[in-house]
Amino acid sequence: MSETTTTTTAAAHAARGSHGRATRPGMLRIGASRIAYEIKGYFRSPDAVFFTFLFPIIMLGIFTAAFSAAGDIQPGPGAEGISVGAYYLPGMLAAGMLLSGVQNLAVDIATEKGDGTLKRLGGTPLSPVSYFLGKIGQVFVTAVLQAGLLLLVSATLFGIALPATTDAWLTFAWVFVLGVATSALLGIALSALPRSGKSATAVVIPIVLVLQFISGVYLRFNILPEWMQNLASVFPLKWMAQGMRAAFLPDDFKVLEQNQEWDLGWVAIALVAWLVIGLVISRLTFRWIRRDA
Q1: Looking at the domain assignment, is residue 61 inside a domain?
Q2: pTM (predicted TM-score)
Q3: Mean pLDDT of 178-187
Q4: CA-CA distance, 274 to 150, in Å (whole number)?
Q5: Helix 264-285 × helix 236-248 angle, to 10°
Q6: What are phi and psi of 8, to 5 degrees?
Q7: Total domain count for the chain?
Q8: Of 42, 59, 129, 270, which has fewest CB within 10 angstroms of its CB?
């Protein structure tokens, strides 16, 4: 039995009530105790760190180096422009949220199901709620570190000016928290799709990659065809990127959005809707072992 499983079992037994069931505070304590184990496991996996933690930083560097020679990006003729790096920073922040939650958890949980880790945890008093809390906590911690590092690199190495108003930072904060929570729950939900741990990467990464291309992360959203913009609007990444642009770009740039507005109300509605969808699917589909195993 692994150290993580042993510790989880001990913590779960300690949190069980007199009737042998884990109490709600007990489930929260167990979930909190698992966050540290999840974080350690995350940083012990070099591929996970690269593709979900460092990837947005590397991509921002590539875009800044490759396209800066073309000049600043302007919202319209005669309007004041911003650098390529400043324009793409919000999209990279949104991509980092998606990678930390959807890609990281979908692949990680599918792998744990395939190698028997979930089956072993299922034999302990650990509840799915505590397991989810550990995973979501890990996503929040790593997403905060990733965003902080991305902003630091952007300001110091690329010379990108960060928001100067309290309102902009408040917009960043609520879009970030809601976006990370939504991405984490959708990652748990998507983990039920791969047939095995070995196929998880092949199943999940193409989905995430396509969403990034159609949602205004790697391509300017206003130059995409209308049908592609409408398709992207069905999924949460488009709204996360739009919310981040509202926080980081000058107000003149809202004319490049689909409705020529930041539509922060719709950003909140779309993300809450996907959060609920992810929560429901996660709870209905999550199993310690596959039914067809």
Answers
A1: yes
A2: 0.89
A3: 97
A4: 25
A5: 140
A6: -60, -45
A7: 1
A8: 129
